[in-house]
Amino acid sequence: ETGVTQTPRHLVMGMTNKKSLKCEQHLGHNAMYWYKQSAKKPLELMFVYNFKEQTENNSVPSRFSPECPNSSHLFLHLHTLQPEDSALYLCASSRVGGAQYFGPGTRLLVL
Amino acid sequence: GIQVEQSPPDLILQEGANSTLRCNFSDSVNNLQWFHQNPWGQLINLFYIPSGTKQNGRLSATTVATERYSLLYISSSQTTDSGVYFCAVGTPLVFGKGTRLSVIA
Hints:
The structure holds two protein chains of two kinds. By secondary structure, chain A is mainly β. Chain A is built from no helices and eleven strands. The N and C termini of chain A lie far apart (31 Å).
């Protein structure tokens, strides 16, 4: 248990569905991150939020839409995904510039 | 951007053996972390070590920031040590491709 939780843990969705991934941290951190891990590829940073403000968007397609309502919660809204978007999606949090702690991930399959 | 290279890419050990994993990075950094990813995908923090040496049980790590490398030592390996070990540097973190470790009983 790292203090970062993610729901759901597994998700299967069709290409026309809309779904959301949720991340919550209980560590008092002020930065939160979304990463994508595809098979045979290094972890890719998607988004960074510092103090609820998005500070990095790593050329992510608009079918992924992040939301950070406060420093403890982070969402990733998904719509009209493609099969190649199937991956493990990991959330992390940190103090700004400090060590990052990861949640258990959401394993997404797009059919 | 910063480049992170890890070696070896794959490693098979007999239980009880020791090993050293290496991480080279292309630019000076103020943040370096080692992670272990278990078979279920969870990334577990091992060390936050932008410089110096730290030890935690059978694991230890050393980062020589001036020479841009870090080493992770695993002693008396156990089957539960199997998985992928990642080095990540910078802010935000840039990950290497990992070292896949298999420890055989």
